[in-house]
Amino acid sequence: MNLAPSRRQLLKSAAVGGPALLASSQAIGVTIGAPTSQPALEPHSIPVADLPKHFDVEPGYHNLEAGYWSMMPRVVAEAFAKANVDVNRASSIYARNVLPGDATWTHDGRAAQAAIARQVGCLPEEIAVTRSGSDALQMLIANYKGLKPGDGVIYCDLDYDAMIGAMEWLGTHKGAQVVRFAMPEPATTANILAAYHDVLTRTPNAKLLLVTQISNRTGLITPVREIVAMARARGVDTIVDAAHGIALLDVQIDDFGADFVGWSVHKWTSAPLGTGAMYIRKSRLADIEIAFENAHIPADSINARVAAGTINFAAALAIPTAINFHFAVGAAAKEKHMRGLRDRWVSQVRDLRNVEIMVPDDPARYCAITSFRLKGMNSDERAQAVQRRLFEKHRVLTIWRAGVAKGPVIRVTPGFYSTAADVDALARALQAEHAMFA
């Protein structure tokens, strides 16, 4: 980016009159977030078979831990790198919104909100960009207005640790009665719904329910819409953790039926690290407190519900490119492809006598993430030993997950960069190691 005219010319303009300096954004050449040299990302222009070609992957390993965050495709990484350079050069000239026109953070922040809204099918004013899915969900939970001391709040053992912490915080800091329950094993649609029905029935004072669309621990997909409706019929609000569902499943916000949703844009949307999203239905905005008296943003803006502070501008600037990439593949195609990769390795190990798959065969209840438990893997130490064995001996990266009521599991998450060879390597490793504790 060429910051012309020269410093001498700028000073001269300032001496003649301040408005001359700010006559137009083009006068000083601010081109934050300009397109990269990559070709246009047209909807449905990338076949799923070509997905791995769009990623630069560390060789020598089979990385099946895409559940942490999603690797950026090359086009997004390039947009992010360029935005980093541009923001660094323009600095506060850009971030302080002193220029007219489009070369301002305010304009680009709204563009990121609009892109996310387009992706999930809601109004741009119902979306706030956050630093992560945890950031969004913690603000929704902690600042939910509908609680008084003694009211019940409910969560499940398969919910995410940071969200569990936030729900427990409602007990220690707001006097809520915190109720935890365990997801049944094996989980089916019928017994998942029965478990939620049971906990709601035995918690008549419940006011708030946390529901995770896809468990980060096991990969189980819950029937969110039915659970939300069940809770609403009892006067209970639901906050939906969609961190592993948005942009992996062919889903829109309205499919949840919920008023409050948070997720990580740096997961399956493949945006840069440090990006998340908060959804509040427009009619329910007043039911979430302003974050820490965030008075410098109008109270009728969802952005007032996000904690104040400088964000990574360049990461947010790359969000529209990431969402264009999402549409270039297509949500339905992504979902089918990722379920296929998962099915490929599971089908090869399903009959091993020492391997327990933690999700049912029902395609509505799983997608990319699927955890397993080996016979005898009954402690965190043994789960960690399995993770080490798979990586050190077979060069397959997985991750152990604690917190499941019946014991730890090993989570397997192929990414959009993954190939059949990656999941086949896992299958071979499990065929060799499944009896390590038997």
From TrEMBL:
Keyword entries, A-Z: Aminotransferase, Pyridoxal phosphate, Transferase
InterPro entries assigned: Aminotrans_V_dom, PyrdxlP-dep_Trfase, PyrdxlP-dep_Trfase_major, PyrdxlP-dep_Trfase_small, TAT_signal
Transmembrane segments: none
Domain Aminotransferase class V: 105-426
GO molecular function, one term: transaminase activity
PANTHER family, A to Z: BLR1280 PROTEIN (PTHR43092:SF6), L-CYSTEINE DESULFHYDRASE (PTHR43092)
Protein name per its UniProtKB record: Aminotransferase class V-fold PLP-dependent enzyme
